Amino acid sequence: MYLNHFGLHTVPFSIAPDPQFLYMSERHQEALAHLSYGLQGSGGFILLTGEVGTGKTTVSRALLTQLPETTRTAFILNPMLNEQELLATLCDEFGIRYAKRNLTNKKLTDKLSQFLLDAHEAGEQCVVLIDEAQHLQPQVLEQLRLLTNLETNQEKLLRVILIGQPELQDLLRRRELRQLAQRITARYHLLPLQASDTERYVHYRLQVAGATQGIFTAAAIKRIHQVREGIPRRLNLLADRALLAAYNDSAQVVSVKHVNDAAQELDGDSQQQKSARVGLPMLAALLVIAILTGIILASIWQNSESPRASMEASTVQESSAGKAEVNSNNALGQLLRNWQLPAYSQQQPLCPWLESFDLGCLQGQLRFDQLVQIGYPMLLELSDGGYQFISSTEQTPAAEWNGRYLLIWQLPPDYKSADSDVYQTWLERQLVGIAQQPESDLVSLVRNAQLEFGLPVTGQLDGTTLAALTARGFANGPRLQGWGG
Q1: Strands laid side by side in the 71-76 sheet
Q2: Fewer Cβ close by (within 10 Å): the C or N end of the chain?
Q3: Which helix (H) or strand (E) holds 466?
């Protein structure tokens, strides 16, 4: 309806997965890098999770286009299967013929095993991609694990990519699936787009659709990001309806008013109206939330700088009570929102909760200029018991700062798997890239990186050094405003 009005030749914000509109944000590219690393490793499972509409399908499609021609793939789009249905579906996807009479799990497993051995002999890799994997039954996941038992001395003959919503992570924590969880060589939780990515996303889709000039004002795009929280599918729905609202007003550009009108039409109520109705009951609820959120940090201010293994950094450990506390304002809430993380419910300690998003928490005592060199937003502990949230290099510590800090950082690929080839390869690339001396020993490479970052030179790959490496080696996550520029 609005195409001619805006000079477009196709609908720019359809939710259909059209390849010509494929936009790989920095976070999508990082997720893709994690999955690609995982396929190069020696394990059998790769995990990609994210909320509905964050672009998991986008990443998986991009991954498949990068696979070599010698890769045999099987897709399972309906995971509501029992063990035998799973095996039969895999045979169908791989083109394996089998007699349907007197069918048993053993017969199907034998067929699949022979197929995998033959494919390996022919130099082919076999990959299974399962979407909506949070719906898989534990016994079906266990059947998949048994299939990945087939291996050579160097690699698994079958790789399984599990794609699902955050509940999939909870499923894999079940005790009966602990063996499968140990075989996950790469995992990534896809967060929503950041504001800058939303702006590029909107302009990119408009250009593909034929736009020759800006159609959305900067304020309108910012409003779309706020209302839809950076989730691509929800962005598409709102942007499409905002275009229609502008067309009905005979406007040449989409304004904040059109976005608000579209949001009200889609949701039955605009975000502004919801904010205007916040009265004493809501304020009381917000006060309770602020108090509860303020109970999360005090008991985790202990040293986490020791290596996890001989040269691997550790993340913050919780107190013996298993709870993190803070008696301050909502500083932690600001930090979590900066990472676009969901609300922290305190149902589990903070640091293990962050690890479910492939994030770590790090704390200790450093000079402020050294913290700025790491590059992540942070909390500073104040001597009066409060905390200061730092998100820009232009900010300065309060006079009450006692030198202690806490920050959230992006974990490297496959960091949680001990002696992972994926992690070791990533680490080597980062350190050698800084030193430009591939023949150097590890201690020398680490020392060089610490000198480059202005961090304490110990030769040990502690938490601060690894966090600084990930800040430079990944595009994901927030950075201090003004850092690196």
Answers
A1: 71-76, 125-130, 158-164, 45-50, 184-190
A2: C
A3: helix 463-473
Provide the 10 A C-beta neighbour count for residue 269. Answer: 12
Confirm whether 213 is domain-assigned. Answer: yes
Global confidence as pTM = 0.57
**Domain boundary residue among 211, 237, 266?**
266
User: How many other CB atoms are there within 10 angstroms of residue 120's CB atom?
Assistant: 18
Q: Contact, 245 vs 49, CB < 8 A? A: no
- Cβ–Cβ contacts within 10 Å for residue 164, how many? 22
**Cβ-based neighbours of 187, under 8 Å, separated by 6 or more:** 34, 38, 46, 47, 48, 49, 358, 414, 416
Q: Which two tokens stand for residue 94?
A: 């791989």
Q: Tens digits of per-residue pLDDT, 172-207?
A: 888 888 888 888 888 888 888 888 889 999 999 999
- Residues 70, 198: one domain? no
Give CA–CA dist 152/149, Å, rounded.
10
Domain range for 218 is: 1-17+194-266
Of 101-110, 250-259, 324-333, 409-418, the poorest mean pLDDT is in 324-333
Answer for the pair 35, 186: CB distance below 8 angstroms, yes or no: yes
